[in-house]
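Q: How do we represent a protein-ligand complex in a form that can be generated token by token?
A: Start from the inputs.
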Amino acid sequence: MPQDCIFCRIAAGEIQADLVHEDEQCVAFRDINPQAPTHILIIPRKHIEGIAKAETEHQALLGHLMLVVGKVARTEGIEDSGYRTVINWGRDSGMEVPHLHLHVLGGRAMSWPPG
Ligand code: 5GP
Ligand code: ZN
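Then emit the structure tokens for the protein with zinc ion bound:
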């Protein structure tokens, strides 16, 4: 694990986070700077720099992360009202943390297209 990766350190329990889900493949926790009433980040325990670096060998893991989106949204109570899932990559997206993460945002109406 890259020692300077903040999300690897959260997954390892070295940095505190408000966890809402964890299993052998991933952890989910509340974003420290929420952009909606519900803002969860889902990360694989394995360090993958981002979606652009995912390989065929990660296929099952990626599928698992998608299923956890639905599970977390259900337990957060935003399944009926709706939510948005975002995966940023690269400069134009504004990505800040180079460890693959899925944002789950809900609890308010959102506009489209995103800014
Ligand atoms: P990105 O812009 O890379 O897609 O999103 C990174 C997200 O991670 C941001 O929404 C930011 O607020 C969140 N974040 C950055 N550092 C921490 C941290 O130490 N703890 C938590 N819970 N969230 C963080
Ligand atoms: Zn990492």
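The first strand starts at residue 19 and ends at 22. The radius of gyration is 14 Å.
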